[in-house]
Amino acid sequence: MLKLLVCVSGGGTNLQAILDAVDSGKISNARVEAVISNNAGAYALKRAEAKGILACCISPKQYESREAFNRALTQKALELSPDLIVLAGFLVAVPEEMIRAFENRIINIHPSLIPSFCGVGYYGLHVHEAVLARGVKVTGATVHFVDCGMDTGPILLQKAVEVRQDDTPKTLQERVMEEAEWQILPKAIDLIAGGRVTIEEGKAKIL
Ligand code: GAR
Question: Is the pTM for the entire model greater than 0.90?
Answer without folding.
Answer: yes
